[in-house]
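Colleagues,

For the teaching module next term, I've prepared a clean inverse folding example: a structure given as tokens, and then the sequence designed for it. I'd like students to try predicting residues themselves before seeing the answer, so please don't circulate the second half yet.
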């Protein structure tokens, strides 16, 4: 789904310069961001409709550009900050026409909320009334979002199905929207955030590994659903990555309006899940398998997007002091080992001077039998680059 965007966000987290002789001072994050913009991508289409995956692709890249501009706030090493600012403004405004009907918004995956960070940033800079309306409409769509029979958000249009994936977009959005625009509702929002995360934790967690499977069907009617929990059968690295990043990115919102009960909950979950993720890392590469509990099984392989997400989350959790000292050291060591493998094995320097990113699975949808053959073989392999 996301392909080359991961290295952009990941590199911002650790400030790593590129290894190319021609780009010895330019970090991979800046190089990758400029490559995406050079290709004219990560923008909403001009027509009246967009594919369901477009919102996440655009919103996630907007977040990466925001991080890039925040982190490298001096003119060097980025020589094109004005270009990044222009992209961010254009991309943000391109989202607006697609999100102005709260009822229709509920027919879009929870990934739609990934665009909220840039919308809020642009609104706070410009006080544009249309951006405020878009933000408020997005927030209203949460009130209208279908929920399963135990109160969990539907990820998409599949009745009763809740996924780990959507937490990365919707949970931080709820937090920063409430902090900025609805602080008097912070306690109720915190309760709902904890409920959504906890339902997934309760229904998807494997006691034997501490990892979470992709999602669950609250009705337990899906062909793949566990008869007791409704859980899907496999731990998919990218869905786990979205969930782990949701925890650390929401914790980063260190404001008085992030209730202590929520901060405590997030940190406890982050510690337990980080420990489980580190235990699942591949000994040779330091990275993670597509289906995390089947290392080395035919059809399985080290997958680049989930690996980048775990690397980002572990580095960040350690750097910001969210982990106990010993676990923080393990997190940094594991993330460093995987990052080196990512750069060596997956980052592609193209002949036209742009960067690409290999080794990412296209999709692993539960809208299938969710068998090993579907999740672990048919849809796996060295996927073509999304943005090339």
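(Answer key — instructors only)
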């Amino acid at each position: 789904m996301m392909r080359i965007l991961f290295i952009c966000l990941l590199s911002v987290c650790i400030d790593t310069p590129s290894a190319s002789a021609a780009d010895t001072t330019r970090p991979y994050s800046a190089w990758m961001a400029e490559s995406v913009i050079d290709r004219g991508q990560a923008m909403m289409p001009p027509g009246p409709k967009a594919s369901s995956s477009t919102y996440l692709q655009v919103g996630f890249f907007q977040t990466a550009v925001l991080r890039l501009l925040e982190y490298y706030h001096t003119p060097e090493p980025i020589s094109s900050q004005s270009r990044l600012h222009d992209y961010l403004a254009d991309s943000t405004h391109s989202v607006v026409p697609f999100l102005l009907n709260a009822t229709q918004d509920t027919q879009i995956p929870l990934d739609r909320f990934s665009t909220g960070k840039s919308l809020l940033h642009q609104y706070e800079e410009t006080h544009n009334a249309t951006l405020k309306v878009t933000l408020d409409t997005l927030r209203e769509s949460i009130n209208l979002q279908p929920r399963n029979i135990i109160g969990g958000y539907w990820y998409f249009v599949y009745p009763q199905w809740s996924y780990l994936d959507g937490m990365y977009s919707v949970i931080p959005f709820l937090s920063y929207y409430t902090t900025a625009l609805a602080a008097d509702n912070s306690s109720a929002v915190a309760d709902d955030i904890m409920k959504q995360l906890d339902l997934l934790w309760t229904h998807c967690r494997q006691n034997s590994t501490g990892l979470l499977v992709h999602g669950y069907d609250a009705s337990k009617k899906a062909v793949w659903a566990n008869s007791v929990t409704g859980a899907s059968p496999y731990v998919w690295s990218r869905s786990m990555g979205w969930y782990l990043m949701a925890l650390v990115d929401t914790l980063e919102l260190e404001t008085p309006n992030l209730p202590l009960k929520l901060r405590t909950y997030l940190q406890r979950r982050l510690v337990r899940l980080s420990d489980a993720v580190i235990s699942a890392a591949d000994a040779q590469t330091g990275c993670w398998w597509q289906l995390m509990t089947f290392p080395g099984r035919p059809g399985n392989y080290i997958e680049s997007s989930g690996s980048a997400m775990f690397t980002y989350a572990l580095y960040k959790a350690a750097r910001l002091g969210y982990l106990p000292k010993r676990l923080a050291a393990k997190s940094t060591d594991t993330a460093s080992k995987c990052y080196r493998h990512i750069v060596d094995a997956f980052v592609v320097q193209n002949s036209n001077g742009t960067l690409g990113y290999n080794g990412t699975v296209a999709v692993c949808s539960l809208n299938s039998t969710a068998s090993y053959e579907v999740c672990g073989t048919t849809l796996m392999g060295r996927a073509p680059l999304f943005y090339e």
